[in-house]
């Protein structure tokens, strides 16, 4: 979400600290700040507001309250209730779906006349909104101020009274952006006597749109059920700023705040004072005030540090919580829009983040040494299997859970080839074996891979193990021998009979130069109550080196030469490396040696590759010429042609 530094400043009597300080405070205590961009005389902060704070911080007021707590200054949220009310402009709305419309406020406003909105339009542009017309801009400005979506209808284009109801079969609506959308009885709408005026909480309709000719308004400020809003928006493929707020749930208390803020803007920004009607307020189940208690010992035990009562009470007060103290407990009532505060752990989190986690010097609590923690059975099994296979030269892979075909379809797939949940591991493992074969240095080099993961046949879920091996050369490939060796290694390591492992086999695919076997670990888990422990510490002690790899194809070259018996392979490798240049990415690898008595022949394989382009044969040949010239500088070394 984009917020304006100047807008935030408007809530405080004195100038806030510099934008750099504010950014640092937000990052360390509240939200990630993804970017800060200058905008004329302002700064625009792009905040990553996570879902737990979408209830209250998708508007400047919520962010200002956070900043106020962090700088220990209370923001001022004034709402002028001194508007002159004309009771003759009373409005009635028929809300037929209280389950989907938890609160609905409406008000008539007459005598609309244009005004100077340059400053507001500028601020809307700063946060990424395109100004439309004066009244719509004011309603958008109020939303970005309070987090509460608002909608305005041209009252003269509304036929009869408003009604909040489900759409009827065969109804359709032309939206503000001129789309014709067919409706059904799962979609909540705002309608009049002639039909739909808006898709509730999602998109306004064109029939009662506000224009520069509008004189009389109806303001809507409502609270809609979030799940219905999300489903409607997704079905219709309509994403709006209002949907973003409604689908994450808002407090019904915001509806009155939003309506009053927009009313005040209309009163202050127009050329002439409009006339306001009384507020229609449908609110069948008012939200209850939440009371949550926490003790100092609770806070200290969770945070692992000492805190005092005065500090805790001060933090809650700065966050605009109502605070009371009774015996050893502190009881607070959060603002209605802080829907993320429900249990004592939520309060402990607030104390920790306002203090600053970097300032909490915590320590692990003492644990009894005579109690052995429970180990998840599936974790123990998969850990032991990984240990066994890695020790025998296998490499673990992770592949997509999504597949082009399957038994369980994805409701909204990312692409056509990821439209189902996979039903086996074999298909992906076979594909990975083929990909790895393209990068082997020698035809008899054996590729050994395995994967552990869930598959989804029909209406079930099964934990599986797939083991595969392959090599380029068909001659010398012994899949049966390798298969029996894997079965023996797994059975020995897991302390079971090979026949028991064989019973869990789900797939076995054999080709000319590959074999893949798939087992059900869910079935294997039913064989016994526990499994041998894996030596996880051995994994952590293993030295691991990470390095980038090139996405461009490599070029392999071989070089062989005769040398005197006193010359070793390492002597030759040293010369090759010194002269190969930066394109050498692998090797030289010794793959052949034979002794002729008076001299020895060594043969090496070298791999060239670039990180920024595809190499040509000429480039590889030039490198080989440099290497050959360097080797033959020694008169007793002879390159074999």
List the helices and strands and how they pair.
Blueprint: E1 2-4, H1 5-9, H2 19-29, E2 32-39, E3 42-48, H3 60-71, E4 93-95, E5 101-110, H4 118-126, H5 134-146, E6 151-154, E7 162-166, E8 172-174, E9 180-182, E10 188-192, E11 195-199, E12 203-204, E13 217-224, H6 226-236, H7 241-246, H8 253-269, E14 275-276, E15 280-282, E16 292-295, H9 296-303, H10 309-318, E17 322-326, E18 329-333, H11 344-355, H12 377-391, E19 395-396, E20 402-403, E21 408-409, E22 420-421, H13 426-437, E23 447-455, E24 462-470, H14 479-494, H15 498-503, E25 505-510, E26 514-520, H16 521-525, H17 536-541, E27 555-563, H18 569-580, E28 584-595, E29 600-608, H19 617-631, E30 638-639
Parallel strand pairs: 4-7, 19-23
Antiparallel strand pairs: 1-3, 2-3, 5-13, 5-14, 5-15, 6-13, 7-10, 8-9, 10-11, 11-12, 16-18, 17-18, 20-22, 21-22, 23-24, 24-26, 25-26, 27-29, 27-30, 28-29
Helix pairs in contact: 2-3, 4-5, 5-8, 9-11, 12-14, 18-19
Describe this structure as you would to a colleague.
The chain has 641 residues and is α+β, with helices and mostly antiparallel strands. The protein has 5 domains: 2-71, Phenylalanyl-tRNA Synthetase, Chain B, domain 1 (2-Layer Sandwich), CATH 3.30.56; 87-282, Phenylalanyl-trna Synthetase, Chain B, domain 3 (Phenylalanyl-tRNA Synthetase, Chain B, domain 3, 3-Layer(bba) Sandwich), CATH 3.50.40; 292-359, Phenylalanyl-tRNA Synthetase, Chain B, domain 1 (2-Layer Sandwich), CATH 3.30.56; 377-541, BirA Bifunctional Protein, domain 2 (2-Layer Sandwich); 555-639, Alpha-Beta Plaits (2-Layer Sandwich). The chain contains 19 helices and 30 strands. The strands form 8 sheets. The protein has a 5-stranded mixed β-sheet with strand order 4-7-10-11-12. A hairpin with a 4-residue loop joins strand 28 and strand 29. Helix 2 (19-29) packs across helix 3 and helix 5 packs across helix 8 (253-269). The chain is elongated, with a radius of gyration of 35 Å. The mean pLDDT is 90.
């Amino acid at each position: 979400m984009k917020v304006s530094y100047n807008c935030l400043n408007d809530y405080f009597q004195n100038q806030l600290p510099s934008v750099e300080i504010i950014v640092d405070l937000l990052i360390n205590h509240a939200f990630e700040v993804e970017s800060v961009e200058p905008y004329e005389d302002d700064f625009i902060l792009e905040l990553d507001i996570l879902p737990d704070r979408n209830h209250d911080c998708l508007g400047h007021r919520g962010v200002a309250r956070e900043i106020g707590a962090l700088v220990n200054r209370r923001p001022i949220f004034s709402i002028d209730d001194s508007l002159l009310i004309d009771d003759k402009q009373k409005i009635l709305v028929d809300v037929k779906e209280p389950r989907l419309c938890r609160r609905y406020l409406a008000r008539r406003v007459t005598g609309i006349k244009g005004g100077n909105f340059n400053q507001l339009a500028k601020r809307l542009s700063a946060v990424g909104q395109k100004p439309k017309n004066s009244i719509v801009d004011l309603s958008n400005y109020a939303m970005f101020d309070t987090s509460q979506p608002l909608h305005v209808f041209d009252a003269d284009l509304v036929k009869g009274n408003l009604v909040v109801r489900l759409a009827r079969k065969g109804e359709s609506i032309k939206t503000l952006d001129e789309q014709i959308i067919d409706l059904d009885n799962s979609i909540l709408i705002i309608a009049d006597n002639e039909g739909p005026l808006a898709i509730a909480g999602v998109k306004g309709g064109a029939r009662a749109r506000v224009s520069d000719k509008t004189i009389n308004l109806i303001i809507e400020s409502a609270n809609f059920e979030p799940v219905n809003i999300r489903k409607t928006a997704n079905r219709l493929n309509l994403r709006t700023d209002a949907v973003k707020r409604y689908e994450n749930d808002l407090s019904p208390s915001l509806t009155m705040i939003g309506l009053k803020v927009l009313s005040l803007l209309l009163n202050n920004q127009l050329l002439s004072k409009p006339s306001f009607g009384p507020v229609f307020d449908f609110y069948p189940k008012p939200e209850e005030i939440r009371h949550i208690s926490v003790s100092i010992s609770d806070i200290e035990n969770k945070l692992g540090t000492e805190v005092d009562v005065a500090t805790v009470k001060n933090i809650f007060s700065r966050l605009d919580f109502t605070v009371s103290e009774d015996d050893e407990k502190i009881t607070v009532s959060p603002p209605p829009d802080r829907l993320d505060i429900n249990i004592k752990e939520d309060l402990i989190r607030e104390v920790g983040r306002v203090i600053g986690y970097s300032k909490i010097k915590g320590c692990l609590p003492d644990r009894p040494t005579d109690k052995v923690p429970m180990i998840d059975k599936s974790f123990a099994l998969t850990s032991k299997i990984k240990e066994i296979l890695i020790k025998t030269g296998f490499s673990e892979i992770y592949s997509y859970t999504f597949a082009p075909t399957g038994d369980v379809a994805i409701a909204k797939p990312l692409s056509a080839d990821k439209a189902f949940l996979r039903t086996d591991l074999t298909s992906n493992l076979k594909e990975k074996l083929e990909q790895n074969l393209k990068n082997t240095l020698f035809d008899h080099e054996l590729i050994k891979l395995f994967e552990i993961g869930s598959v989804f046949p029909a209406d079930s879920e099964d934990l599986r193990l797939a083991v595969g091996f392959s090599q380029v050369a068909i001659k010398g490939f012994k899949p049966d021998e390798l298969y029996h060796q894997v079965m023996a290694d797994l059975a020995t390591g897991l302390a079971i009979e090979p026949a028991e492992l064989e019973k869990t086999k789900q797939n076995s695919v054999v080709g000319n130069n590959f074999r893949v076997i798939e087992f059900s670990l869910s079935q294997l888990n039913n064989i016994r109550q526990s499994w041998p422990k894996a030596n996880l510490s051995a994994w952590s002690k293993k030295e691991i080196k990470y390095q980038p790899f090139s996405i461009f194809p490599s070029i392999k070259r071989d070089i062989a030469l005769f040398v005197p018996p006193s010359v070793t392979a390492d002597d030759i490798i040293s010369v090759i490396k010194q002269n190969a240049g930066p394109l050498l990415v692998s090797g030289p690898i010794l793959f052949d040696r034979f002794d002729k008595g008076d001299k020895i022949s060594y043969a090496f394989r070298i791999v060239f590759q670039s990180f920024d382009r595809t190499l040509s044969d000429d480039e590889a040949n030039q490198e080989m010429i440099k290497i050959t010239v360097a080797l033959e500088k020694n008169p007793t070394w002879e390159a074999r042609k």
